[in-house]
Amino acid sequence: MDKLAIIGGRELYGELEISGAKNSALKVMVASLLTADALTLTNVPDLADVRQLLVLLDNHGVEIDRDGATLRLKAKEITSTTAPYEIVRKMRASFNVLGPLLAREGEARVSLPGGCAIGARPVDLHLKALEAMGAQIELEEGYVVASAKQGLRGARVSFPFVSVGATEHSMMAATLAEGVTTLENAAREPEIVDLADCLNAMGARVEGAGTSTITIHGVAALHGATHDVLPDRIEMGSYAMAVGAAGGELLLKRGRMSLLGAADGILAEAGLTLTDEPDGLRVTKWGRPTKGTNVHTEPFPGFPTDLQAQYMALMALADGTSVIRETIFENRYMHAPELMRLGANIHVDGQTATVRGVKSLRGAPVMATDLRASMSLVIAGLSAEGQTFISRLYHLDRGFERLDKKLQSVGALVERVPDTD
Ligand code: EPZ
């Protein structure tokens, strides 16, 4: 296993390509189960999570053809409607095969994903929505066993709170339901719009994606299509914060401000300059330290929970105090003690973290605890004096494509080295 060695204190300059969004790629890949024709996806990032989902799609009989960032998926015949625990437990997004399998085959047996490091993450909203569409659902030995022998039918689903996964899951299942489905209090993330665009290219009739009410007119069958995965807003925001912490100027190619939602105003308030350019988003930070600003996480267009850890690293060196409130997941501050090992002054009380900016951080060995937490340690390491070693790199490999190479190309002293401890 590798660890990441970082020598901090170098400003970042140049251009860096933003990859396709992990959290969009995973959903459009699952959408391939809805048709017997080929779905061609471009701009698919090469990530551990993508490879893991391919293992599951292969288990269902999907023919897979990968050429660089282009992925061709053809589910000509579904050979198994069971998604086994051994595969689903490794990645929660796998659970979203339930709806498409049910919609196309009238049955599915999918392992419950279980909790994960950042919270319990139940799937009750997913199941209630499928039940509203006429699915019979039983829980048997850790599996969701669902059937809809007469097919799914359109329904009105009103979510009690916003869920990205439940919105996407219901939207996919409803494409093949008989009649009209309305999703109220739907998530509005850019990945929802990307999935709707992909489904519509496949012949679905999805309206209103990107707003709180999504209407899906069911169709008898979907067909093949080509879809370009949207750029990863979390990768983009993370590199913007790396510039904020280390200083310098980067053009984040393919990036654009609108993908940041409320994060653009927060970063500007903290002292970063963000400018949309024809090729991408330009981020500049030099001179004075960043300013301590308060943030609470919210569904899009609010400040994303997936950037909260990175923002904490940025605030560690800010001038003043920043109060951060995590409202989406109940256990998403595991990076705080690791940042404190680098000299950050952070006090966590329940869902609130108070970060008092310090003059400098000092490199140290630290441990990645989850995907976005790992990136916060990278950002802190880039701005710290001396050397930082980040172990458990497999977390980063799940969601940041070629991170070491990208950072090297803009002047960072970053290297993967074997972890012999
Ligand atoms: C997606 O998770 C993302 N994952 C997460 O990114 C992201 O943090 C999250 O949305 C919020 O933006 C993928 O897209 C693969 P939710 P998801 O359903 O869909 C609760 C990353 O690092 N809830 O919007 O699972 C849930 O526990 C990952 O890339 C229920 O209670 O998130 C959470 O508290 C981490 N019942 C809240 O809702 C349900 O049935 C929002 O979760 C569903 C969710």
CATH fold description of the largest domain: UDP-n-acetylglucosamine1-carboxyvinyl-transferase, Chain
CATH architectural category of the largest domain: Alpha-beta prism
Largest sheet: 4 strands, mixed
Q: Note the overall shape.
A: elongated
**Order of strands in the sheet with the most strands?**
22-23-1-24
CATH class type of the largest domain = Alpha Beta
**Uncertain stretches of 5 or more adjacent residues:** none
Distance between the termini: 10 Å
- Which value, in Å, is the CA radius of gyration? 21 Å
Structural class: alpha/beta
How much of the sequence is in beta strands?
25-35%
Total strands: 24
Q: Can you say what the CATH homologous superfamily of the largest domain is?
A: Enolpyruvate transferase domain
Helical content stands at: 25-40%
Ligands, deduplicated = ligand EPZ
Mean pLDDT: 96
Count of alpha/pi helices? 14
**Count of distinct structural domains:** 2
Secondary structure blueprint with pairings:
Layout (H helix, E strand, L loop, with lengths): L1 E6 L4 E6 L4 H10 L6 E5 L5 H12 L3 E5 L2 E5 L7 E2 L1 H4 L9 H8 L1 E5 L12 H9 L3 E5 L2 E5 L8 E3 L5 H12 L4 E5 L5 H12 L3 E3 L5 E5 L7 E4 L4 H14 L1 E6 L9 H8 L2 E5 L2 E6 L9 E2 L11 H9 L4 E5 L9 H7 L3 E5 L2 E5 L8 E3 L3 H13 L3 E5 L2 H6 L3 H7 L3 E6 L3
Parallel strand pairs: 2-15, 3-14, 6-7, 10-11, 18-19, 22-23
Antiparallel strand pairs: 1-23, 1-24, 3-5, 4-5, 7-9, 8-9, 11-13, 12-13, 15-17, 16-17, 19-21, 20-21
